[in-house]
Amino acid sequence: MGAHALGAAAYAVKAVELATPNRGETEVQWQVQNMSRAVQAALRTLPLLGEDPSGPLGSGLLAAGALGRTIRALQTALRVIDPN
Asked: How many domains does the chain have?
């Protein structure tokens, strides 16, 4: 389910970027800042995008292009908040 959450977040960033170019990074930061601590903690337990080729965050549609870049940005932002 966590992979679905990251995918939905990535699609939301894509929509923001289409509506207002160059606002994607701001949207990523907004999403992370507005997640509950429990959601942040749950998403941090997921493997990094592309790390597990057999999992939902493997080498599928979410791993490439703008969606992949966004998920990597989300995962990086989550680790900056709590690097453990």
From this structure: 1
